[in-house]
Design brief:
heterodimer; A: seven-stranded mixed β-sheet; three-stranded antiparallel β-sheet; 12 strands; globular; B: 3 strands; 37% helix
Chain lengths: 134, 73
């Protein structure tokens, strides 16, 4: 169990904690990127990711989440194998056709309970340390 | 910092991130072999990348627009 540190990605002085991970659907792994969002209660990805995974996102459990402007957007929740570093596990991954930001968002559910996640704006890194299972 | 422990294509994305945002912001792209595949459906992009770089594992990503980087709550 080792930690994995990702450098922030940078655009014109803005730093973004965007990491690499893999998701499996229909027996195929796909490498993707996601913005680590400690303020998001669950992970919400763009529907293009579902298309690339050959997954009909609407077959997921429909729910609604409240976003920053106070409105609600629909999400379709799937439970999918996820790999971050050496760790492989099942996580709730939602897809939304109304996700209004240009990133996949990696939120807390099933992710922040599996890793200690440390943001360092000073070092411009985000570090994932697997939590020891008792 | 050294990032040799990270996937090779992720390191490429890191080095070329500003160019990606400036050129492909708002689009979904697939990247393999240092080449960006864009302008079609994600499944088609994946197939094209795998066909051209069969030994590589392509990366897919929605490329944010410049305005996506402004401060957020």
């Amino acid at each position: 169990m080792r930690s994995l540190t990702f450098p922030y990605l940078s655009y014109r002085g803005y730093k973004a904690p965007i990491i690499a991970l893999a998701i499996k659907a229909k027996k195929e792994w796909r490498q993707i990127t996601a913005y680590v969002d400690s303020g998001a209660s669950c992970s919400i990805f763009k529907t293009e990711e579902a298309e690339r995974l050959n997954l009909n996102f609407k077959t997921g459990k429909k729910d609604f989440v409240r976003v920053g402007d106070g409105s609600y957007i629909p999400i379709y929740v799937h439970r999918l194998p996820v790999q971050i570093g050496d760790e492989e596990f099942i996580a709730a991954i939602a897809f939304s056709p109304e996700l209004g930001v240009g990133f996949n968002l990696l939120g807390r559910k099933d992710i922040f309970s599996r890793f200690d996640i440390s943001f360092s704006d000073a070092k411009e890194t985000v570090t994932f340390t697997p939590v020891k299972k008792s | 910092m050294k990032d040799s422990h990270l996937p090779k294509t992720y390191s490429w994305i890191r080095k070329n991130y500003s160019k990606l945002v400036n050129r492909y912001g708002g689009q979904y792209v697939v990247i393999a072999g240092g080449e960006v595949f864009a302008g079609q459906s994600p499944q088609v992009l994946e197939k094209e990348a795998r066909a051209k770089y069969p030994k590589e594992t392509p990366f897919g990503m929605p490329v944010p627009r410049p305005e996506d980087f402004t401060c957020a709550l």
